[in-house]
User: Fold this.
Amino acid sequence: MSTDDVQCRCCPQCSAEPTSEIQLDLSRRQFVAMGGVLVGGLTLMGLQGNLFAAEGDHTVPMPKPRKPLVVKPILMHDLPTPREATSWRNWGGIHSREAAQEEVGRIRSELNGLKAKADYPIAFLELVTATSVDQLNGNADIAACDVILFYGAGHSINGIQNFGKDVIVFQRWKSGPVYLQYEIVSPRFLRQHTDEAAVANIRNEDVVTDNVKELDWRFRALCGLKNTMGSKIVTIGGAGAWASPGLNVPENVKKIWGFEYHDVNYDDLSKLIDEAKADAAVMARAKKRAVSYLKLPGTKLETGMDFFVNSFVLDEIFRLLMKQVDTRLITVNSCMGAIIPRSKTTACYTLTTLNDDDYLAFCESDFCAIPGGVLLGNITGKPVFLCNPTFPHDNIITVAHCTAPRKMDGKKLNPVRIVTHYESDYGAAPWVKAPLGTVTTHIAAGFRSERWVGIKGKIVDVPFRPICRTQYDIQYNVPDRLLADRMPGFHWMTCYGDYRKEIGYALRRTGIQWDNLDEVPVKEA
Assistant:
């Protein structure tokens, strides 16, 4: 039997001794030209020194939290002067400074309540009032914020589209004094006295009426987008893509998302692993962590202990590399071939422990799919499962991979059997038992970085078939043919919960088309 006969088919880049340059057909000069940073000259002692000087010995790094979304609230109102026998005021209930101050108190109370319940980091700058957009020119908070939350009680709203910020317009109907913009935000502002949308960066979906919860998911989306744009990511073995020759996916991703690739080649990783294996303190920490981990409820080891300990050696190295680059993102290229002989285990369980500690760690270096995982993780604050989908049938699709987070809800560790990686029958990989009935969000990203498909699902079975180890049978509510016809790319990104609205709201700002299949009209489906 030839080597080609047994080569894994779900990961096309798994040769035994690949280099990132061969895989991507990129020279190092080209890699740097597209925004890559070659992380060379690494030593374990140097990485440890950078960490322990700041945090003390006998510890492993933890990721920084997500950056907060910074919001500037502005109340725009009128101050009309009564005049005899003529119209002197617009619609609305805020026409005096006293009424405006009362509204300021109402707004502050609502925003304080929203912040207290938010599952994402958010900071509200000082709420200000104005009677004209011109009064806001030169405002330092507007320059510093990510989003303007504009309360449109008055007429002077045109111009907020020119501050170069995301804008959400809030208006009242029943939740307080009615706002003027409840009447005119569409014809006068969004359509600018025409019949078509005329403000490119503010659309109907940026207008919220009464419901503060409608602000919440929009803020969650924009927080996720903020934390995704311009991300640094450690690329073990280079930035690649799944079976998409000629498209230069990493370069497309760089242009859309501003990702900064920090490549650690396998020669340097080999040296770090060798140094770690020769470091008594590192090995002692790895063994201690492995033993402690196996005492966690719902944890069962069904592979060699050496494989499992080596997963924690690799875990510490990966954490040190991310600390060096100042990121919580990492991906491993050729993880089925190149890393196994070097680490004497698979990277599968290492990625599990990293994801459960709030890193975003992905196998296969597939930058067709990775932006979706980064965005989804930054929106939800939960781990994300990069998985292989199958063919949809009978309203069921199986998604599977040999690495998966246990803490998919961001809080509780699901039960796990620690087994070998399926295709190699080597190393340590998780079979994670998810609760049946769990609602899930799925992203299928296209190879060209132009269109993402989204679907809501529900876990209806967690089998143990002879395929990648963690397996979920997902039930969905759209026609099988619709999903099959519109499914792009290959790898899916999966998380717990329903975040389709947030993904679409964030994607609008990137130019990527969001195809939410659950919203396709019945006749089209």
About this structure: The two ends are 45 Å apart (CA to CA). The longest strand covers residues 451-461. Residues 48 and 272 are 11 Å apart (CA to CA). Confidence is low (pLDDT under 50) at residues 1-6, 15-25, 53-57.
